[in-house]
Amino acid sequence: MRSAKDFFRPLAVGAPTPITEVPARPSRVIHFFDPSNAKMAAKVPAMVGTVDVLLGNLEDAVKADRKEAARAGLVEIAKATDFGEHTQLWTRINALDSPWALDDLTTLVTEIGDKLDVVMVPKVQGAEDIHYVDRLLAQLEAKAGLTRPILVHAILETARGMVNVEEICGASPRMQGLSLGPADLAADRRMKTTRVGGGHPGYLVRTDPVDGDVTGARATAQQDLWHYTIARMVDACAMHGIYPYYGPFGDIQDVVACEDQFRNAFLLGCVGTWSLHPVQIEIAKRVFSPSAEDVAHARRVVEAMGDGTGAVMLDGKMEDDASLKQCLVIVELAERLAQ
Ligand code: GLV
Ligand code: MG
């Protein structure tokens, strides 16, 4: 039976860096800000406590001539801000084949390594990328005298990264989780979408013709472009005991589609998502928390199942050892969120 201990990632055997304990933590909302944008940066201190993660983004969406300013801005914000117990500080560094990634890691770990919880690495292709970051972090942490390991989160946004998703998850005991990067992944796969996340009205199924009449009216339903990818990512993360996250939803005004996409990811096993705008924060918090009804039902099943074995009938439905495990997922999530 799962317990709260399961929220702490077990150590991988034969890992490249000897880390004795990795206090990984799931989070519903990873809120992105651009540290080179003074207006956005000024809002950061007031957001502490309102989101699980504040992430200073250095990669895409920051212009090439603002990379150094973004890095320096993040150092300044981190030094000036007390993030308290409930909000973590993460960063998304530039891609490992860009001119900035090495300086990002060196500067951030040296200057604010004591405040930085997780480094998000974009465009990860395979375990070798994680090994590279892991070794660099180990050196920089040792030099800075840091005792708490900085964790690593990879974005799945290349076809090669998707193919190597299992080895990426298990590449280091620093691995905290994965996010889907639907925009870069769509481009790399040569999908024909132009949005950041979400669906496409042309990706649909149509009912068969009635009585063979191919000209007659037939219902259609839009399909989820990301179902396969998210399900695959969730399996790989579950296998390695790390956390899967949805990622960005770029149409800030379409709060309905945003909520649908987040909810699909939640139901498939994701623990959280990114927010690119404050309106997405409340959506993410609501969606990635189990409903009061689901929690009440799950508690009834736990209660009815007694020692956790056998089968009982509740409201005409059969519950057994396996449905108990599903209910425990909901109960434990509710308990953790209440802490
Ligand atoms: C995120 O980085 C994406 O490419 O969707
Ligand atoms: Mg991307």
UniProtKB/TrEMBL annotation:
Residues that bind substrate: R92, E157
Cross-referenced Pfam families: HpcH_HpaI (PF03328)
Biological processes, Gene Ontology terms: oxaloacetate metabolic process
InterPro entries referenced in this protein's UniProt entry, alphabetically: Aldolase/citrate-lyase_domain, Citrate_lyase_beta/mcl1/mcl2, Pyrv/PenolPyrv_kinase-like_dom, Pyrv_kinase-like_dom_sf
Cofactor: Mg(2+)
Any one GO MF annotation of this record: lyase activity
The entry's keywords: Lyase, Magnesium, Metal-binding
Residues involved in Mg(2+) binding: E157, D184
Domain HpcH/HpaI aldolase/citrate lyase residue range list: 30-195
Position of the signal peptide: none
Name recorded for this polypeptide: Beta-methylmalyl-CoA/L-malyl-CoA lyase
Gene source species: Humibacillus xanthopallidus
